[in-house]
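Hi W., the zinc ion complex you wanted:
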Amino acid sequence: MSVLVREVRPWGGPLTDMGIVDGVFVSPELVEPGSAVIEGEGRIALPTAINSHVHPDKTMWGESWLSRPPMRELTELIDFDVEARRGLGDTVATRAGRLMRDAVATGTRAMRAHVDVAPVYGLDNVVGTVEAATALSQALDVQVVAFPQLGVMRAPGTADVMRQAMTAGADLVGGLDPWSLDGDAEGQMSVLFSLAHEFDAGIDLHLHDHRDEGALMVRTLAERALAEGLYGRLTISHAFALGEISSDLLVLVIDALLAGGVSLTTCAHGDAPLLPLRELIAAGVPVGLGTDGIRDPWSPYGSPDMVERAWLTAYRLGVSSDEEVADQYRLAVDAASHFLGLAPSRLHMGDPADFMLVRGECPAQIVVDRPPRDLVLRRGEIVAVDGKCLL
Ligand SMILES: [Zn+2]
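Structure:
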């Protein structure tokens, strides 16, 4: 299958034609005469994004409005989440599928989904998320993390349900605040690492802890991953502490992250310090961008649009130059491909033809204005038109 995409501006650069054969970019001369043609009409071509941290099983995207009480503590949020889910009308597969289709329509090619696993839920959330992902497999890669939202040690029976989730098709072992929420760091870590070994899987762990104490936990986890032979297979999500520590301590933590091949994800939360992105990226620590929960019992905010998340990150960083604003979308495009095990998507020859066409002036203006996505392609096939997913 071959396609000629005429008169587009890759990353806002000069007008050119792009060729696609068998789902990857090739020189336009290699496209056989008579192949399908897409008229770009001067639109900008941008690679589609990776949402490296999202909770599709929790979402109420497309459901009626949920009023939330004031909540501050993690335990309050967890309790409200369990209660609110009992009143949801649609199934996990329906809600997650709705969110995933809108993710595709706004230009997302892959996501890492943290899916709640606990005795109170059994495998319902994993089964529903996998069902939604399977229906969209032509358009979206979905990795499922078996996420112990209620804790591992504080919710007895969770380790068994996590093992069942891994058997049922979850791709990664999840974790949550082993020290502060679970109160038994060694207990949670031994469950996580033993499941990782048993299923030859990576780990992606939420860590909300702050300041020097939180940074020490990041370092301990990185050292443990290395000692357990899991180089390159641990992701720490949030790691707020790294935005709050001295530059001397940050250097020590970065050394441990690099030694363990540890990656990070950030979501630019409104109430938490930003990761020191400049220092981490300059040092070579892989950092992916995610949305975290989208309109769920925890929070009314967010959308599946990764251009919007790039805008939020740029806004929170306070950057204004074209390059720095556009860099926040680059964070969503390529950084996570390494630790998600995906081919990079940069619009280079040989890359998968995963991209979108947008009317605009330059990538920075697109991040700020977030114009409609006219066309989204996955491996050279059109998967969304005018903001509507075709699957
Ligand atoms: Zn999360």
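The chain has a mean pLDDT of 96.

W.
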